[in-house]
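Agenda item 2: thiamine diphosphate complex prediction
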Amino acid sequence: MPTNKPTGAQLVISTLKALGVDVLFGYPGGAIMPIYDALAGSGLRHILVRHEQGASFAADSYARATGRVGVCMATSGPGATNLITGIANAYMDSVPVVFITGQVATHLMGTDGFQEVDFLGLTLPVVKHSWLVRDAAQIPAILARAFAIAKEGRPGPVLVDIPKDVAASFVEASEMGELPAWTPPAPKAESIDAARALIEQAQKPLLYIGGGVHMADADAEMRDFVERTGIPFVSTLKGLGTVSTYHDLHLGMLGMHGTRAGNMAVQATDLLIAVGARFDDRATGKLSAFAPHAKVIHFDIDPAEFHKNRRADVAILGDLKQALPALQPKMPDISEWVKFNKTNKWQHRFKYDAPGKGVYAPGLLKSLSEKAGKKFIVACDVGQHQMWVAQHCEFEQNLAHLTSGGSGAMGYGLPAGMGAKLGLPDHHVVTVSGDGSFMMNIQEMATLRRYGINLKIVLLDNSSLGLVRQWQELFYEENYSEIDLSDNPDFVEVAKAFGLSAFRITQRHEVEGAIDRLLAADAPTLLHVLIDPRENVWPLVPPGASNAEMMEERWDEPIDSY
Ligand SMILES: Cc1ncc(C[n+]2csc(CCOP(=O)(O)OP(=O)(O)O)c2C)c(N)n1
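Presented output:
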Protein backbone atom coordinates (compact mmCIF):
# COMPACT_ATOMS: atom_id res chain seq x y z
CA MET A 1 0.00 0.00 0.00
CA PRO A 2 1.52 3.40 -0.92
CA THR A 3 2.42 5.42 2.08
CA ASN A 4 4.50 8.47 2.88
CA LYS A 5 6.18 6.70 5.71
CA PRO A 6 9.80 5.68 5.16
CA THR A 7 10.97 2.10 5.37
CA GLY A 8 13.64 0.94 7.74
CA ALA A 9 15.95 0.64 4.73
CA GLN A 10 15.31 4.24 3.73
CA LEU A 11 16.14 5.27 7.28
CA VAL A 12 19.45 3.41 7.00
CA ILE A 13 20.37 5.41 3.93
CA SER A 14 19.12 8.78 5.16
CA THR A 15 20.91 8.28 8.47
CA LEU A 16 24.20 7.36 6.79
CA LYS A 17 23.90 10.55 4.76
CA ALA A 18 23.06 12.58 7.86
CA LEU A 19 26.13 11.11 9.54
CA GLY A 20 28.25 12.48 6.72
CA VAL A 21 29.21 9.16 5.11
CA ASP A 22 30.61 9.73 1.65
CA VAL A 23 31.93 6.31 0.60
CA LEU A 24 30.81 2.85 1.64
CA PHE A 25 31.97 -0.57 0.50
CA GLY A 26 29.74 -3.57 0.01
CA TYR A 27 28.13 -6.42 -1.82
CA PRO A 28 24.36 -7.08 -2.14
CA GLY A 29 22.26 -10.19 -1.65
CA GLY A 30 18.83 -11.46 -0.55
CA ALA A 31 18.48 -10.31 3.02
CA ILE A 32 19.97 -6.86 2.41
CA MET A 33 17.98 -6.18 -0.77
CA PRO A 34 15.65 -3.61 0.79
CA ILE A 35 18.69 -1.55 1.81
CA TYR A 36 20.27 -1.79 -1.65
CA ASP A 37 16.88 -0.83 -3.07
CA ALA A 38 16.93 2.33 -0.96
CA LEU A 39 20.59 2.97 -1.85
CA ALA A 40 20.01 3.25 -5.59
CA GLY A 41 19.83 6.90 -6.61
CA SER A 42 20.43 8.09 -3.05
CA GLY A 43 23.64 9.92 -3.90
CA LEU A 44 25.69 7.84 -1.47
CA ARG A 45 28.88 6.58 -3.11
CA HIS A 46 28.90 2.80 -2.89
CA ILE A 47 31.89 0.80 -4.09
CA LEU A 48 30.85 -2.62 -5.33
CA VAL A 49 33.79 -4.87 -4.50
CA ARG A 50 34.23 -8.41 -5.83
CA HIS A 51 34.38 -10.19 -2.47
CA GLU A 52 33.00 -9.10 0.89
CA GLN A 53 36.40 -9.58 2.51
CA GLY A 54 37.68 -6.90 0.13
CA ALA A 55 34.92 -4.56 1.32
CA SER A 56 35.80 -5.13 4.96
CA PHE A 57 39.50 -4.42 4.43
CA ALA A 58 38.82 -1.42 2.20
CA ALA A 59 36.50 0.12 4.81
CA ASP A 60 39.15 -0.52 7.46
CA SER A 61 41.92 1.20 5.54
CA TYR A 62 39.63 4.03 4.47
CA ALA A 63 39.08 4.65 8.20
CA ARG A 64 42.80 4.45 8.99
CA ALA A 65 43.75 6.79 6.17
CA THR A 66 41.06 9.42 6.70
CA GLY A 67 40.42 9.24 10.45
CA ARG A 68 36.71 8.86 9.72
CA VAL A 69 34.46 5.87 10.42
CA GLY A 70 34.58 3.25 7.65
CA VAL A 71 31.30 1.71 6.49
CA CYS A 72 30.77 -1.73 5.00
CA MET A 73 27.63 -3.63 4.01
CA ALA A 74 26.92 -7.27 3.17
CA THR A 75 24.06 -9.68 3.07
CA SER A 76 23.26 -12.44 5.57
CA GLY A 77 24.88 -15.88 5.75
CA PRO A 78 27.91 -16.21 3.46
CA GLY A 79 28.02 -12.49 2.74
CA ALA A 80 28.31 -11.78 6.43
CA THR A 81 30.75 -14.59 7.21
CA ASN A 82 33.01 -13.30 4.43
CA LEU A 83 33.36 -10.15 6.54
CA ILE A 84 34.62 -11.85 9.66
CA THR A 85 38.33 -11.67 8.85
CA GLY A 86 37.95 -7.95 8.23
CA ILE A 87 35.96 -7.42 11.41
CA ALA A 88 38.60 -9.25 13.46
CA ASN A 89 41.29 -7.22 11.71
CA ALA A 90 39.63 -3.93 12.66
CA TYR A 91 39.15 -5.21 16.20
CA MET A 92 42.79 -6.22 16.67
CA ASP A 93 44.07 -2.92 15.30
CA SER A 94 41.39 -0.74 16.96
CA VAL A 95 39.96 0.68 13.74
CA PRO A 96 36.51 2.34 13.72
CA VAL A 97 34.31 0.58 11.15
CA VAL A 98 30.52 0.15 11.15
CA PHE A 99 29.42 -3.11 9.54
CA ILE A 100 25.80 -3.30 8.39
CA THR A 101 24.57 -6.78 7.55
CA GLY A 102 21.26 -8.06 6.29
CA GLN A 103 19.65 -10.83 8.33
CA VAL A 104 16.89 -13.27 7.35
CA ALA A 105 13.37 -12.13 8.15
CA THR A 106 12.45 -12.26 11.83
CA HIS A 107 9.98 -15.15 11.45
CA LEU A 108 12.73 -17.29 9.83
CA MET A 109 15.35 -16.60 12.46
CA GLY A 110 16.25 -19.75 14.35
CA THR A 111 14.79 -22.05 11.68
CA ASP A 112 18.00 -22.56 9.67
CA GLY A 113 16.40 -20.38 7.03
CA PHE A 114 18.14 -19.86 3.69
CA GLN A 115 21.37 -17.92 4.26
CA GLU A 116 20.75 -17.70 7.95
CA VAL A 117 23.66 -17.47 10.33
CA ASP A 118 23.72 -16.12 13.85
CA PHE A 119 26.07 -13.31 12.96
CA LEU A 120 25.68 -11.53 16.25
CA GLY A 121 26.79 -14.69 18.01
CA LEU A 122 29.61 -15.38 15.56
CA THR A 123 31.14 -11.95 15.86
CA LEU A 124 30.68 -11.39 19.58
CA PRO A 125 34.37 -11.72 20.50
CA VAL A 126 35.59 -9.42 17.72
CA VAL A 127 33.26 -6.44 17.89
CA LYS A 128 33.20 -3.53 20.26
CA HIS A 129 29.41 -3.54 20.25
CA SER A 130 26.58 -5.04 18.19
CA TRP A 131 22.86 -4.81 17.60
CA LEU A 132 20.23 -7.03 16.08
CA VAL A 133 17.63 -4.47 15.06
CA ARG A 134 14.06 -5.51 15.80
CA ASP A 135 12.27 -2.19 15.43
CA ALA A 136 12.90 -0.13 12.31
CA ALA A 137 12.01 3.06 14.12
CA GLN A 138 15.20 2.69 16.13
CA ILE A 139 17.48 2.54 13.11
CA PRO A 140 18.57 6.19 13.13
CA ALA A 141 19.36 6.16 16.84
CA ILE A 142 21.18 2.81 16.62
CA LEU A 143 23.29 3.84 13.63
CA ALA A 144 24.23 7.12 15.21
CA ARG A 145 25.20 5.31 18.39
CA ALA A 146 27.15 2.74 16.34
CA PHE A 147 29.22 5.51 14.75
CA ALA A 148 29.87 7.11 18.11
CA ILE A 149 30.90 3.84 19.77
CA ALA A 150 33.17 2.91 16.87
CA LYS A 151 35.16 6.12 17.40
CA GLU A 152 35.11 6.84 21.10
CA GLY A 153 37.60 5.56 23.65
CA ARG A 154 39.57 2.74 22.08
CA PRO A 155 38.13 2.65 18.55
CA GLY A 156 36.86 -0.57 17.01
CA PRO A 157 34.31 -2.31 14.79
CA VAL A 158 30.58 -2.17 15.49
CA LEU A 159 27.96 -4.44 13.93
CA VAL A 160 24.36 -3.57 13.03
CA ASP A 161 22.46 -6.67 11.85
CA ILE A 162 19.08 -5.85 10.27
CA PRO A 163 16.48 -8.52 9.43
CA LYS A 164 14.94 -8.19 6.00
CA ASP A 165 11.39 -7.60 7.23
CA VAL A 166 12.59 -4.92 9.63
CA ALA A 167 14.35 -3.13 6.76
CA ALA A 168 11.24 -3.43 4.59
CA SER A 169 8.74 -2.27 7.18
CA PHE A 170 7.21 1.20 7.11
CA VAL A 171 7.67 3.29 10.20
CA GLU A 172 7.08 6.79 11.44
CA ALA A 173 10.11 8.80 10.42
CA SER A 174 12.37 9.10 13.41
CA GLU A 175 15.42 11.12 14.17
CA MET A 176 18.88 10.11 15.26
CA GLY A 177 18.27 12.06 18.42
CA GLU A 178 20.81 14.14 20.24
CA LEU A 179 23.92 12.22 21.09
CA PRO A 180 25.91 13.22 24.09
CA ALA A 181 29.36 14.21 22.85
CA TRP A 182 32.06 11.93 24.19
CA THR A 183 34.86 13.54 26.09
CA PRO A 184 37.92 11.41 26.66
CA PRO A 185 38.84 11.07 30.33
CA ALA A 186 41.47 13.51 31.54
CA PRO A 187 44.62 11.93 32.98
CA LYS A 188 44.98 12.15 36.75
CA ALA A 189 47.42 14.73 38.05
CA GLU A 190 48.93 12.23 40.54
CA SER A 191 49.88 9.81 37.78
CA ILE A 192 51.40 12.59 35.69
CA ASP A 193 53.43 13.66 38.74
CA ALA A 194 54.57 10.09 39.37
CA ALA A 195 55.64 9.75 35.73
CA ARG A 196 57.54 13.01 35.90
CA ALA A 197 59.41 11.82 38.99
CA LEU A 198 60.42 8.58 37.22
CA ILE A 199 61.67 10.41 34.14
CA GLU A 200 63.64 12.87 36.24
CA GLN A 201 65.46 9.98 37.96
CA ALA A 202 66.06 7.94 34.81
CA GLN A 203 69.43 7.60 33.14
CA LYS A 204 68.37 5.61 30.10
CA PRO A 205 64.74 6.45 29.27
CA LEU A 206 63.23 5.05 26.08
CA LEU A 207 59.91 5.73 24.37
CA TYR A 208 57.99 2.77 22.97
CA ILE A 209 55.46 4.26 20.56
CA GLY A 210 52.44 2.23 19.45
CA GLY A 211 49.57 2.65 17.02
CA GLY A 212 47.36 4.04 19.77
CA VAL A 213 49.03 7.45 19.52
CA HIS A 214 47.79 7.99 16.00
CA MET A 215 44.38 6.54 16.90
CA ALA A 216 44.16 9.19 19.61
CA ASP A 217 45.08 11.83 17.03
CA ALA A 218 48.01 12.72 19.27
CA ASP A 219 50.85 12.54 16.72
CA ALA A 220 51.62 16.25 17.14
CA GLU A 221 51.73 15.96 20.94
CA MET A 222 53.99 12.90 20.65
CA ARG A 223 56.36 14.73 18.32
CA ASP A 224 56.45 17.67 20.66
CA PHE A 225 57.23 15.36 23.58
CA VAL A 226 60.18 13.85 21.71
CA GLU A 227 61.51 17.32 20.86
CA ARG A 228 61.09 18.63 24.42
CA THR A 229 62.69 15.66 26.15
CA GLY A 230 65.17 14.35 23.58
CA ILE A 231 64.31 10.78 24.62
CA PRO A 232 65.19 8.16 21.97
CA PHE A 233 62.28 6.10 20.68
CA VAL A 234 61.38 2.75 19.15
CA SER A 235 58.15 2.10 17.24
CA THR A 236 55.84 -0.85 16.96
CA LEU A 237 54.75 -1.97 13.49
CA LYS A 238 51.63 0.16 13.87
CA GLY A 239 53.47 3.07 15.44
CA LEU A 240 55.84 3.64 12.51
CA GLY A 241 55.71 7.24 11.32
CA THR A 242 53.84 8.60 14.34
CA VAL A 243 57.04 10.50 14.93
CA SER A 244 58.81 10.65 11.58
CA THR A 245 61.03 7.63 11.04
CA TYR A 246 63.58 10.07 9.57
CA HIS A 247 64.13 11.48 13.09
CA ASP A 248 67.65 10.87 14.34
CA LEU A 249 66.36 9.68 17.74
CA HIS A 250 64.35 6.95 16.00
CA LEU A 251 65.94 3.56 16.58
CA GLY A 252 63.53 1.68 14.32
CA MET A 253 60.93 -0.96 14.99
CA LEU A 254 61.39 -3.19 18.01
CA GLY A 255 60.64 -6.89 18.34
CA MET A 256 60.81 -9.97 16.18
CA HIS A 257 61.97 -8.22 13.01
CA GLY A 258 63.01 -5.04 14.71
CA THR A 259 66.33 -3.31 14.32
CA ARG A 260 69.34 -4.33 16.30
CA ALA A 261 69.69 -0.80 17.71
CA GLY A 262 66.03 -0.76 18.75
CA ASN A 263 66.15 -4.08 20.54
CA MET A 264 69.47 -3.27 22.20
CA ALA A 265 67.95 -0.07 23.54
CA VAL A 266 64.98 -1.98 24.98
CA GLN A 267 67.32 -4.41 26.68
CA ALA A 268 69.37 -1.62 28.22
CA THR A 269 66.75 0.97 29.17
CA ASP A 270 66.01 1.75 32.81
CA LEU A 271 62.69 3.46 32.05
CA LEU A 272 60.39 2.29 29.28
CA ILE A 273 57.66 4.77 28.42
CA ALA A 274 54.99 2.88 26.49
CA VAL A 275 52.56 5.18 24.70
CA GLY A 276 49.48 3.66 23.05
CA ALA A 277 51.24 0.30 22.81
CA ARG A 278 50.04 -3.01 24.18
CA PHE A 279 53.13 -5.16 24.77
CA ASP A 280 52.21 -7.49 21.92
CA ASP A 281 54.29 -10.68 21.82
CA ARG A 282 55.73 -9.82 18.39
CA ALA A 283 57.15 -6.67 20.01
CA THR A 284 58.24 -8.07 23.36
CA GLY A 285 59.60 -11.51 22.52
CA LYS A 286 59.96 -13.56 25.71
CA LEU A 287 58.13 -11.37 28.20
CA SER A 288 60.23 -12.22 31.22
CA ALA A 289 63.33 -10.97 29.42
CA PHE A 290 61.73 -7.88 27.88
CA ALA A 291 63.21 -4.58 29.08
CA PRO A 292 64.61 -6.48 32.06
CA HIS A 293 66.09 -3.47 33.85
CA ALA A 294 63.26 -1.05 33.23
CA LYS A 295 60.58 0.60 35.24
CA VAL A 296 57.52 1.16 33.09
CA ILE A 297 55.26 4.13 32.47
CA HIS A 298 52.24 3.11 30.42
CA PHE A 299 49.86 5.55 28.71
CA ASP A 300 46.60 4.12 27.33
CA ILE A 301 42.94 4.91 26.79
CA ASP A 302 41.91 1.33 27.58
CA PRO A 303 42.35 0.36 31.24
CA ALA A 304 42.25 -3.33 30.24
CA GLU A 305 45.72 -2.89 28.73
CA PHE A 306 47.36 -1.94 32.02
CA HIS A 307 49.32 -4.74 33.70
CA LYS A 308 47.98 -7.21 31.10
CA ASN A 309 51.36 -8.35 29.84
CA ARG A 310 53.74 -6.17 31.83
CA ARG A 311 53.21 -4.53 35.19
CA ALA A 312 53.39 -0.75 34.93
CA ASP A 313 54.97 1.31 37.70
CA VAL A 314 52.84 4.22 36.58
CA ALA A 315 49.70 3.73 34.51
CA ILE A 316 48.22 6.85 32.96
CA LEU A 317 44.66 6.42 31.81
CA GLY A 318 43.19 9.06 29.56
CA ASP A 319 43.42 11.29 26.57
CA LEU A 320 46.93 11.38 25.15
CA LYS A 321 46.30 14.82 23.72
CA GLN A 322 46.09 16.03 27.30
CA ALA A 323 48.46 13.62 29.01
CA LEU A 324 51.53 14.20 26.86
CA PRO A 325 51.54 18.01 27.08
CA ALA A 326 50.85 17.76 30.83
CA LEU A 327 54.02 15.75 31.37
CA GLN A 328 56.83 18.34 31.56
CA PRO A 329 59.85 16.71 33.18
CA LYS A 330 63.04 18.56 33.90
CA MET A 331 65.29 16.36 31.86
CA PRO A 332 68.30 14.71 33.49
CA ASP A 333 71.51 14.50 31.46
CA ILE A 334 70.99 11.57 29.10
CA SER A 335 73.63 12.52 26.56
CA GLU A 336 75.69 9.35 27.09
CA TRP A 337 72.60 7.23 26.55
CA VAL A 338 71.66 9.12 23.40
CA LYS A 339 75.21 8.70 22.10
CA PHE A 340 75.14 4.95 22.88
CA ASN A 341 71.95 4.59 20.83
CA LYS A 342 73.08 6.72 17.90
CA THR A 343 76.30 4.73 17.70
CA ASN A 344 74.36 1.46 17.66
CA LYS A 345 72.00 2.82 15.04
CA TRP A 346 74.94 3.70 12.80
CA GLN A 347 76.92 0.52 13.42
CA HIS A 348 73.95 -1.77 12.82
CA ARG A 349 72.35 0.10 9.93
CA PHE A 350 70.97 -1.99 7.11
CA LYS A 351 73.29 -2.86 4.25
CA TYR A 352 72.12 -3.03 0.69
CA ASP A 353 75.13 -4.38 -1.16
CA ALA A 354 73.74 -7.91 -1.46
CA PRO A 355 75.72 -10.06 -3.87
CA GLY A 356 74.41 -10.94 -7.30
CA LYS A 357 72.43 -9.23 -10.01
CA GLY A 358 68.97 -10.33 -9.00
CA VAL A 359 66.55 -7.85 -7.44
CA TYR A 360 67.25 -7.38 -3.74
CA ALA A 361 63.84 -6.64 -2.22
CA PRO A 362 65.04 -4.48 0.71
CA GLY A 363 67.02 -2.34 -1.74
CA LEU A 364 64.03 -1.98 -4.05
CA LEU A 365 61.82 -0.89 -1.15
CA LYS A 366 64.41 1.62 0.01
CA SER A 367 64.47 3.13 -3.50
CA LEU A 368 60.69 3.15 -3.68
CA SER A 369 60.52 5.01 -0.40
CA GLU A 370 63.15 7.54 -1.49
CA LYS A 371 61.59 8.14 -4.88
CA ALA A 372 58.01 8.40 -3.61
CA GLY A 373 59.16 10.98 -1.05
CA LYS A 374 57.22 12.16 1.93
CA LYS A 375 53.74 12.03 0.42
CA PHE A 376 53.42 8.36 -0.18
CA ILE A 377 51.24 5.80 1.53
CA VAL A 378 52.05 2.11 1.57
CA ALA A 379 49.43 -0.57 2.15
CA CYS A 380 51.10 -3.87 2.96
CA ASP A 381 50.10 -7.44 2.83
CA VAL A 382 51.49 -10.00 5.24
CA GLY A 383 54.77 -11.83 5.04
CA GLN A 384 58.43 -11.10 4.43
CA HIS A 385 57.58 -8.18 2.17
CA GLN A 386 55.58 -6.60 5.02
CA MET A 387 58.56 -6.81 7.34
CA TRP A 388 60.89 -5.44 4.65
CA VAL A 389 58.58 -2.47 4.19
CA ALA A 390 58.62 -1.82 7.93
CA GLN A 391 62.41 -2.03 7.97
CA HIS A 392 63.44 -0.29 4.77
CA CYS A 393 60.83 2.36 4.01
CA GLU A 394 60.78 5.71 5.78
CA PHE A 395 57.49 7.24 6.90
CA GLU A 396 56.95 10.89 7.52
CA GLN A 397 53.49 10.24 8.96
CA ASN A 398 51.73 7.36 10.63
CA LEU A 399 48.91 7.19 8.10
CA ALA A 400 51.54 6.53 5.47
CA HIS A 401 51.88 2.95 6.65
CA LEU A 402 48.77 0.76 6.49
CA THR A 403 49.24 -2.77 7.67
CA SER A 404 47.36 -5.60 9.29
CA GLY A 405 49.27 -5.59 12.54
CA GLY A 406 47.45 -7.47 15.28
CA SER A 407 45.68 -9.95 13.07
CA GLY A 408 48.30 -10.32 10.31
CA ALA A 409 45.70 -11.04 7.64
CA MET A 410 47.01 -11.98 4.21
CA GLY A 411 44.83 -10.42 1.53
CA TYR A 412 44.75 -7.03 3.27
CA GLY A 413 47.08 -5.18 0.92
CA LEU A 414 45.13 -4.78 -2.30
CA PRO A 415 41.75 -3.80 -0.83
CA ALA A 416 43.51 -1.69 1.79
CA GLY A 417 45.35 0.24 -0.90
CA MET A 418 42.05 0.70 -2.68
CA GLY A 419 40.29 2.05 0.42
CA ALA A 420 43.15 4.41 1.19
CA LYS A 421 43.30 5.77 -2.36
CA LEU A 422 39.55 6.41 -2.33
CA GLY A 423 39.88 8.23 0.98
CA LEU A 424 42.97 10.23 -0.03
CA PRO A 425 42.90 10.54 -3.83
CA ASP A 426 45.72 13.12 -3.88
CA HIS A 427 48.23 10.85 -2.19
CA HIS A 428 50.56 8.42 -3.82
CA VAL A 429 49.21 5.07 -2.61
CA VAL A 430 51.23 1.91 -3.25
CA THR A 431 50.27 -1.63 -2.26
CA VAL A 432 53.25 -3.86 -1.54
CA SER A 433 52.23 -7.51 -1.69
CA GLY A 434 53.63 -11.02 -1.88
CA ASP A 435 52.53 -13.63 -4.38
CA GLY A 436 50.67 -15.64 -1.73
CA SER A 437 48.89 -12.66 -0.20
CA PHE A 438 48.02 -11.07 -3.53
CA MET A 439 46.14 -14.17 -4.64
CA MET A 440 43.88 -13.90 -1.60
CA ASN A 441 42.06 -10.83 -2.89
CA ILE A 442 43.29 -10.65 -6.47
CA GLN A 443 39.73 -10.09 -7.68
CA GLU A 444 39.80 -6.51 -6.39
CA MET A 445 41.84 -5.53 -9.43
CA ALA A 446 38.45 -5.51 -11.15
CA THR A 447 37.23 -2.93 -8.65
CA LEU A 448 40.30 -0.78 -9.33
CA ARG A 449 39.57 -0.83 -13.01
CA ARG A 450 35.84 -0.18 -12.72
CA TYR A 451 36.26 2.94 -10.59
CA GLY A 452 39.56 4.03 -12.12
CA ILE A 453 41.27 3.90 -8.73
CA ASN A 454 44.86 4.85 -9.42
CA LEU A 455 46.55 2.44 -7.04
CA LYS A 456 50.08 1.23 -7.73
CA ILE A 457 50.97 -2.35 -6.86
CA VAL A 458 54.44 -3.74 -6.22
CA LEU A 459 54.22 -7.53 -6.22
CA LEU A 460 57.33 -9.11 -4.70
CA ASP A 461 57.15 -12.63 -6.08
CA ASN A 462 59.39 -15.27 -4.52
CA SER A 463 57.24 -18.13 -5.82
CA SER A 464 56.57 -19.22 -2.28
CA LEU A 465 54.97 -18.42 1.04
CA GLY A 466 58.18 -16.72 1.99
CA LEU A 467 57.78 -16.05 5.68
CA VAL A 468 56.59 -19.59 6.33
CA ARG A 469 59.44 -20.90 4.20
CA GLN A 470 61.89 -18.89 6.29
CA TRP A 471 60.56 -20.38 9.53
CA GLN A 472 60.70 -23.88 8.07
CA GLU A 473 64.28 -23.26 7.04
CA LEU A 474 65.36 -21.95 10.42
CA PHE A 475 63.14 -23.74 12.93
CA TYR A 476 61.92 -26.90 11.18
CA GLU A 477 65.21 -28.16 9.77
CA GLU A 478 64.47 -27.13 6.20
CA ASN A 479 61.46 -29.38 6.08
CA TYR A 480 59.63 -27.37 3.43
CA SER A 481 55.99 -28.21 3.77
CA GLU A 482 53.34 -26.72 1.46
CA ILE A 483 54.99 -23.40 0.71
CA ASP A 484 55.75 -23.82 -2.98
CA LEU A 485 53.96 -21.42 -5.31
CA SER A 486 56.20 -21.93 -8.31
CA ASP A 487 53.18 -22.61 -10.49
CA ASN A 488 51.86 -19.09 -9.95
CA PRO A 489 49.99 -17.69 -12.94
CA ASP A 490 51.63 -15.06 -15.10
CA PHE A 491 50.72 -12.10 -12.92
CA VAL A 492 51.38 -9.56 -15.67
CA GLU A 493 48.89 -11.31 -17.94
CA VAL A 494 46.40 -11.67 -15.10
CA ALA A 495 46.60 -7.97 -14.28
CA LYS A 496 46.20 -7.09 -17.95
CA ALA A 497 43.17 -9.35 -18.18
CA PHE A 498 41.65 -7.33 -15.35
CA GLY A 499 42.32 -4.18 -17.37
CA LEU A 500 45.36 -2.90 -15.47
CA SER A 501 48.72 -1.87 -16.89
CA ALA A 502 51.42 -4.29 -15.84
CA PHE A 503 55.10 -4.98 -16.37
CA ARG A 504 57.83 -7.16 -14.91
CA ILE A 505 61.44 -6.88 -13.82
CA THR A 506 63.90 -9.61 -12.89
CA GLN A 507 67.25 -7.81 -12.62
CA ARG A 508 68.63 -5.27 -10.19
CA HIS A 509 69.63 -2.74 -12.84
CA GLU A 510 65.96 -2.47 -13.86
CA VAL A 511 64.76 -1.35 -10.44
CA GLU A 512 65.21 2.42 -10.61
CA GLY A 513 63.59 2.77 -14.03
CA ALA A 514 60.71 0.52 -13.03
CA ILE A 515 59.93 2.53 -9.92
CA ASP A 516 59.97 5.77 -11.91
CA ARG A 517 57.64 4.26 -14.48
CA LEU A 518 55.31 2.90 -11.81
CA LEU A 519 55.06 6.14 -9.87
CA ALA A 520 54.51 8.18 -13.02
CA ALA A 521 51.70 5.99 -14.39
CA ASP A 522 48.29 7.66 -14.41
CA ALA A 523 46.26 4.45 -14.17
CA PRO A 524 46.26 1.47 -11.81
CA THR A 525 49.47 -0.41 -12.53
CA LEU A 526 51.15 -3.57 -11.34
CA LEU A 527 54.92 -3.95 -11.11
CA HIS A 528 55.73 -7.64 -10.93
CA VAL A 529 59.16 -8.28 -9.41
CA LEU A 530 60.81 -11.67 -9.37
CA ILE A 531 63.04 -12.04 -6.32
CA ASP A 532 65.30 -14.74 -4.95
CA PRO A 533 63.08 -17.32 -3.24
CA ARG A 534 65.77 -17.93 -0.63
CA GLU A 535 65.93 -14.35 0.61
CA ASN A 536 65.18 -14.02 4.32
CA VAL A 537 64.18 -11.22 6.66
CA TRP A 538 66.96 -10.16 9.02
CA PRO A 539 67.41 -9.63 11.87
CA LEU A 540 65.08 -12.13 13.47
CA VAL A 541 64.26 -12.95 17.07
CA PRO A 542 63.35 -16.65 17.15
CA PRO A 543 59.88 -17.38 18.48
CA GLY A 544 59.86 -17.66 22.26
CA ALA A 545 63.33 -16.12 22.57
CA SER A 546 64.24 -12.82 24.14
CA ASN A 547 64.81 -9.75 22.00
CA ALA A 548 68.46 -9.92 23.02
CA GLU A 549 68.88 -13.15 21.04
CA MET A 550 68.66 -11.78 17.52
CA MET A 551 69.75 -13.85 14.56
CA GLU A 552 71.79 -11.85 12.10
CA GLU A 553 71.88 -11.36 8.38
CA ARG A 554 73.20 -14.15 6.18
CA TRP A 555 73.63 -13.75 2.47
CA ASP A 556 73.46 -16.84 0.30
CA GLU A 557 75.12 -17.27 -3.04
CA PRO A 558 72.99 -15.33 -5.50
CA ILE A 559 70.66 -16.80 -8.06
CA ASP A 560 70.90 -14.55 -11.07
CA SER A 561 68.53 -16.15 -13.50
CA TYR A 562 64.96 -17.33 -13.25
C1 LIG B 1 44.93 -15.33 5.93
C2 LIG B 1 46.27 -15.83 6.36
N1 LIG B 1 46.60 -17.12 6.17
C3 LIG B 1 47.81 -17.58 6.56
C4 LIG B 1 48.70 -16.75 7.16
C5 LIG B 1 50.06 -17.27 7.60
N2 LIG B 1 51.13 -16.62 6.85
C6 LIG B 1 51.85 -15.57 7.30
S1 LIG B 1 52.95 -15.00 6.22
C7 LIG B 1 52.55 -16.19 5.10
C8 LIG B 1 53.26 -16.25 3.78
C9 LIG B 1 53.00 -15.05 2.96
O1 LIG B 1 53.47 -15.29 1.67
P1 LIG B 1 53.50 -14.12 0.61
O2 LIG B 1 52.25 -13.35 0.62
O3 LIG B 1 53.90 -14.71 -0.70
O4 LIG B 1 54.62 -13.16 1.17
P2 LIG B 1 56.18 -13.38 1.42
O5 LIG B 1 56.34 -13.86 2.83
O6 LIG B 1 56.64 -14.39 0.42
O7 LIG B 1 56.75 -12.04 1.22
C10 LIG B 1 51.55 -17.03 5.59
C11 LIG B 1 51.00 -18.18 4.88
C12 LIG B 1 48.30 -15.40 7.36
N3 LIG B 1 49.07 -14.51 7.97
N4 LIG B 1 47.09 -14.97 6.94
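Discussion summary: The chain has 23 helices and 18 strands.
Owner for follow-up: CH.
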